[in-house]
Amino acid sequence: MKSSEITQILQSLKINPDEIPDKNESQTIRILLHIIEELNEEVQALKAELQKTRDELNQLKGEKGKPKFFVPKKNIEDCKVDPIFYQEMRS
């Protein structure tokens, strides 16, 4: 699950710890939300590290890695990339 999806789900729950009358419950909710944020950040970092490791492994096996440049999918006509080159890259 993406970080933005988790944020969206948490916001849709409309949990406001300040509105919880019981101080212990309010503090517990704050702690749990903080733990969720921390774990999500850790998961994102581990995903990035895993992808980097996979890329390095593929490179060691002699495969080509991912290209280091970005070609936007939208408005390709506005891009200063030769359309023939772009089509060759996609095939």
Describe, in short, the structure shown.
The chain is mainly alpha-helical. It is built from three helices and no strands.
Give helix % range.
Answer: 55-70%
Provide the low-confidence segments as ranges. none
Question: Count the strands?
Answer: 0
**Helix and strand succession?**
HHH
Structural class: mainly alpha
Number of contiguous helices: 3
Question: Major beta sheet, specifics?
Answer: none
Q: Approximately how much beta-strand content do the residues carry?
A: under 5%
Distance between the termini: 30 Å
Assembly state (oligomeric): single chain
Q: What's the overall geometry? A: elongated
Instruction: Please tell me the overall pLDDT.
Output: 80
**Rg for CA atoms:** 22 Å
Task: Describe this structure as you would to a colleague.
The longest helix has 38 residues, at 23-60. The protein is an all-alpha fold and 91 residues long. The radius of gyration is 22 Å and the shape is elongated. The chain has helices at residues 3-13, 23-60, 83-90. It is built from three helices and no strands. The two termini are 30 Å apart.
Key terms:
about 90 residues; mainly alpha; 3 helices; about 0% strand; elongated
Strands, helices and their partners?
Elements: H1 3-13, H2 23-60, H3 83-90
